[in-house]
Amino acid sequence: MNKRQVQHAINKGFSHLEFTAVHQREVLSKVRGETVVKKKGSVGLVLAMVLLLAAVTALAVTIWNAAGEKALRLEAEKGSVYEWDTETRIAFVNDLMAMDILLPEDELAQMNDTTLPLDERDASARKIIIDLYGGPDRREDAISHRSILEKENGPFENWSLEDKAWYSQILEKYHYLGWDNWENVGYNVLPGKEDISREQAVQIAADAVSAAYGVDISDIPFKEALVSFARRSKVNPEPKWEITFSGYATVLLTPSGDITSDQYIQTPLEEAEQQRIRDEEAAAYRIRLREAEDKHGPEQYRWPLEVRAALFAPYDRMPKDSDMEAETAIIKAKEALTGTYGFDERFFDNLTAYVSLSEYSGTRNTEGSRNHETGAWNFAYSVNFDAPDQPLICGVTMLSDTGEILETYWNADGVIPSVG
Questions:
Q1: How many CA atoms lie within 13 A of 269 on its CB side?
Q2: Long-range pairs of 409-413 with CB within 8 A, sequence gap ≥ 24
Q3: DSSP states along 164-184
Q4: How many CB atoms within 10 Å of residue 39?
Q5: Do 26 and 33 form a contact (C-beta atoms < 8 A)?
Q6: pLDDT for the residue numbered 367
Q7: Of 131, 167, 233, 342, which residue is least crowded by CB atoms under 10 Å?
Q8: Cα 7 from chain centre
Q9: Which residues pair with 359 in a beta bridge?
Q10: 43 CB-side CA count, 13 A
Q11: How far is it, in rounded angstroms, from Cα 344 to Cα 335?
Q12: What tens digit of pLDDT does each residue of 129-140 get?
């Protein structure tokens, strides 16, 4: 619908009303916010004012939608707005001027002055577009047909069902919306005669939220509901109602108003309780972790076996019957280090051994260390030797049941050569 069509509709709608010059001045004063001397009015004048303001609003939306569609067509042909060539950019601005969008006269004159260099004209066109649609950051790369539409109509999520359906149609028209994109952006349509209305869908969703969350129906923000009626899958193209109230899960409904099976509005209380328990457990765990650090120091490898097993289960544990004793692991560790690096027996006299028993996820060879019969990782002892002033001097990792040596290290002159 172009400007002339809108003007014709206004003239036709007002043809039966007496709308004198005095009335026109009064309407314009109202629009401008000026004080008007009160006189005896008429029902016809009030109606005329309402219709005029509604028509002006409708005309503005129609113009901005036309600008957005124009930008979409150019994007489909020329790429993103910031990639347009000068001729395309100038033509777009002139189209905006033809739509009676208010533009700065100086930049317009310079843009259309064919005696000026093309780069100067291009700079004027860019400035007009950026000033209009670049937002507070004046970013040309953020301008698109969508941002042009949203400047006037607000965020897409808040659009009416009619505007959303119109948008899907023009996306399809310019090949911006194919079946493969439905899962991401959807294809908005209007409900049919057999489908429930928007008001009915919102009410059903509010009732579901009220029951699921245990809140009074009056506390649900009906007016702020985000509503769409869209197809989301090329496999099952039946549209669904999607209703979201701020702070609550989205409710999905079939066209007839049934809550669908692929949404989770029915279990938020259970999920919230589970999350509360997880949060409490996490807080308690952090307290226990800080207590262990205060008592045993920040180096976790130095903590006693029972402390690590209590805090890090199931990845750490106490020895089982199938595991060697911790003392045996220390003896085997000394033997392995002595044999690998040539230490004498007195090397360990001034060192302390710290033992941990953890799930081992490293690899020793191409087969790795996974127990292929059970599918579980093997557990291994880590035995670290250090002195108070020099941590992690040397150490060994070995399988907890067989004692097979998986890895050794020795911190020689600050370098840790590893064997295994």
A1: 9
A2: 410/337, 410/340, 410/341
A3: HHHHHHHHHHTT---GGGHHH
A4: 9
A5: no
A6: 46
A7: 342
A8: 42
A9: 379
A10: 1
A11: 10
A12: 999 888 888 888
Cis upstream peptide for 314 (omega within 30°):
yes
Amino acid 414: pLDDT: 52
The torsion region of residue 130 among left (phi > 0), alpha (psi -120 to 50) and beta comes to alpha
260: tokens are 């669908």
The CA-based diameter of the chain, rounded to the nearest angstrom, is: 114
Alpha helices in 40-144 (DSSP H): 43-78, 86-98, 105-111, 118-133
Please name the residue ranges forming H helices in 214-325.
268-296, 305-312
Q: How far apart are CA 209 and CA 266, in angstroms?
A: 8
- CA–CA distance, 1 with 10 (Å, rounded to integer): 13
d(CA 380, CA 323) in angstroms, rounded, equals 9
Q: How far apart are the first and last CA of the chain?
A: 77
Note whether 151 and 161 are within 8 A (CB).
Answer: no
Residue 369: the pLDDT is 46
Q: Which helix (H) or strand (E) holds 218?
A: none
Helix (H) / strand (E) element for 3: namely helix 3-14
Distance CA 279, CA 268 (A): 16
Strands in 226-231's sheet, in edge-to-edge order, are: 187-188, 226-231, 240-244, 251-253
Residues of the chain with pLDDT under 70: 1-64, 177-185, 261-273, 362-377, 413-420
How many residues does the structure list for the chain?
A: 420
The Cα 39–Cα 252 span in angstroms is: 53
pLDDT, tens digit (0-9, with 9 covering 90-100), for 330-373: 999 999 999 998 888 788 988 999 999 998 876 544 344 444 34
Give the C-alpha distances (Å, rounded to integers) separating 141 from 62, 80, 81, 175, 403: 25, 8, 7, 22, 63
Q: Say what the pLDDT of residue 247 is.
A: 80
Q: In this structure, are residues 220 and 210 in contact, taking their beta carbons and an 8 Å threshold?
A: yes
Spatial distance between the Cα atoms of 281 and 10, rounded to a whole number of angstroms: 66
Single pTM value for the model: 0.51
pLDDT the model gives residue 370: 47
Question: What are the distances in angstroms from CA 318 to CA 297, 322, 356, 364?
Answer: 20, 11, 9, 24
DSSP 3-state assignment of 341?
helix
State the pLDDT at residue 144. Answer: 87
Taken in order 318, 322, 323, 324, is the CA torsion positive or negative? positive
